[in-house]
Amino acid sequence: MKIGTDGVLLGAWAPIEHNPYNVLDIGTGTGIISLMIAQRSHAEQIDAFDIDEDAYEQAVDNFENSSWNDRLFCFHAALDEFMEETSDQYDLIVSNPPFYTEDYSSGNEQRDLARFADALPFEDLAEAGGFLLSQNGIFAVILPYKEEEKFIALVRDFDLFPVKITRVKGTPTSEIKRSLLAFSKHHVENFPIDELVIEISRHNYTPEYINLTKDFYLKM
Question: pTM for the full model?
Answer without folding.
Answer: 0.91
